[in-house]
User: Fold this.
Amino acid sequence: MPVPFLDLYAANRRHENAFFREFQKLYRQSAFIGGPHVANFEREFARSTGAKHCVAVSSGTAALHLVLVASDIGPGDEVIVPAFTFPGTAWGILYQGATPVFADVRLEDGCIDPEDVVRKITRRTKAIIAVHLFGHPANMDTLGKIARKHKLVLIEDAAQAHGGSFRKRSLGTLGDFGCFSFYPTKNLGGLGDSGAILVKKKSLADRLRRLRDHGQREKFFPEEIGFNARMDAIQALFLKLKLSQLKSDNQRRTAIAKRYLHAIKTNPALIPLQPLDEAQSAWHCFVIRSETRAKLLRLLNSRSIGYQIYYPEILPALKPFRKLDNGPYPVAQELAHTCVALPLYPRMKSKEIGEVAKILKAG
Assistant:
């Protein structure tokens, strides 16, 4: 039977009636930007993670950019990022005129390698961005020690890690800033682009709120150069509805991942990326490595099973970053050449899960 990589309508259908009831009220009020819905979501998302402050923004990319602005990072500064991630992780560094410095990643989970981070630190280094790739937590204990020793800002890119944890602490609350995306395909996904920043210090939260709204605290009186990076009320309304189901959805993701891991045990040709022992993955994706990826893709196509290649190239090889290459990055390149993401979402049917498990045993 065909298995889609992701069925967004299946994921969102249960919220349909409640959303349209609330949307009708919002539509009549016509308070589409900011307002109580955004404030309510900020409060609930902060509560769900144990964060002190949440600042809702227009996207995960905007979140990563704004925390660099709030950290006063600019020309001449360096920010260490993993060589294997989505390009949005590094755009904000370029926007600020700073320099991305790429570190290799770990083969086991795809997250940034703390040992290579240490090798890449210079007198110009101002921050580290740790990506919780595919929902698997980066080693925040070690990265935190490195950041404290060298007095660096530690930023979590938790765009794929809603609800994950490291040593029982929520991802996004372990560094100086936690940046989230609510793109529709995420574990907590909206109806368009939106994002959020978790932060400990009230002074930084206040500045981030100004930065997202044209640099102003009082309308028409900007205090610094700002941005149009606000979350709209429609996204906040929908995300608040979905937030109540995030824990149970992630439990379902974990159960599916465990079934896949059991199936793959008998197939030495396929190696899954897995979280650290002390980590609870959000299991945004189930990603495997295959030295014969082309053969595996032919098999998946023949069975009409959806998949994605995350990511087909490392960041330093992409055109906007080539002149910044400070490689080599052998592990990142290995992952780019061998990784495949398979279907994993909470509303998968048992038969669909079984079809993927068969591939894992045979592929």
